[in-house]
Amino acid sequence: MRTFLLTLVVLVSAATVHAGEGGTTFRVITQWSEALDMAKAQGKPIFLDAYTDWCGWCKEMDKKTFSNASVAKVMNESFVCVKMEMETGEGIDVAMKYRISSYPYFMIFDANGMPTYRSAGFEPTEAWLVSLEKMKDPSKKLKAPGITAGIKMEWPEWHRESYAKGKARKFPDTAVVRSWLEKYPNKFDEMAWSVMLRYDMGERWETFALANETQYVSRYGTEVSTLHEKLSQRTFMAAVATKNPALLDKAVALSDPESADQAQLLRLRYGAMYGQRVQDWKMVGGSVRAMSIRPDAIENSNMINEFSWTMYEKCPDKDALADAAWAMGKITKDANTDWALVDTYAAVLYKSGQTDDAKIAAKRAIELGTAEGADVKETKALLEKIKAGK
């Protein structure tokens, strides 16, 4: 009787949503205890879809991945699937506890609330089915004994404010963070670790963290890679601020890449990002072109697309635009390519002066987009501009 009542309470308190007809069944929760109660009642681990209202890729996961029948079958059978908004109420506690700051973000928990798997970012159906198998594989389980059970902790108020929604979000002055680290007694517990990962802690504490990396690995496992990413990004920003591209190699090294191939891809991405910020468009075009000839170019098509679209919007250099057009042409050869990629291809062809090819690409984008039920109004407007020679 107790189990029946518990299940009834949970079903009443949590709104049920479906990611498309026949898609994954989620329950939207506002209290973390709801997820724990459902997990215990159903004897399944928790799948948490951590989202925000403004996250476009979260909506894409619902529309393109969670709606898939094969995905839904695995997720509905294997997990208690819950959605929780991360910028209000207890969502903030969950975000602080598990250091969630990019979206979409997904985690698996056992019925006691201990995390067993993390995943970040949009994944299309086929890739997500592979990820789901990893989530269920005991050998892939997180090794992070430094994480305790329960989400309620005595966080500094300035830390909570940094997770708030919209205009209410406020980050502390670096002096506040560094002073707190000086006084906080346990530099290895999860509260100190969370602060170290979120803010600019200064050279002293960065040196301390790297010198004690083994201890942090023993407590938080692969999450230590986030520390390297943070230090890498800070060095990248220093490169931009000083207009010193030589620092990009240091930024790559600080990221602690797993392989030379991974380091090369990051170097190309940093090169494109740096070029955008300092308006060295030849650097952006060259980086995008180099990305497009890598074996993993299709996997990185969204990144190539984003850089190329920015060039269409902002780049005045036709030679650099021609590099972007060449790259987009490489990744859109497949007949089943995403129409939005072909749309970008048409745009950069047009701006680089390749109007005949731009017209062909724009027509193709309209045809593909229409077949997908997409809004191709802007592509049609582009085609008219191309035809008019404007």
Describe the structure.
- This protein has helices at 2-13, 32-42, 56-66, 69-78, 90-97, 125-136, 157-161, 174-183, 190-198, 202-211, 213-220, 224-242, 247-254, 260-278, 281-292, 301-314, 318-331, 339-351, 355-372, 377-388, and strands at 15-18, 25-28, 46-51, 80-85, 105-109, 115-120.
- It is 60% helix and 8% strand.
- Among the domains are: 2-140, Glutaredoxin, CATH 3.40.30.10; 283-390, Serine Threonine Protein Phosphatase 5, Tetratricopeptide repeat (Alpha Horseshoe), CATH 1.25.40.
- Helix 16 runs parallel beside helix 18.
- The chain has 20 helices and six strands.
- With 390 residues, the protein is of the alpha/beta class.
- It has a six-stranded mixed sheet with strand order 1-2-4-3-5-6, with helices on both faces.
CATH fold annotation of the domain at 2-140:
Glutaredoxin
> Mean of residue pLDDT?
93
Instruction: List low-pLDDT spans.
Output: 1-13
What gross morphology would you assign? Answer: globular
Tell me the strand percentage band. Answer: 5-15%
Summarize the main sheet.
6 strands, mixed
Structural class: alpha/beta
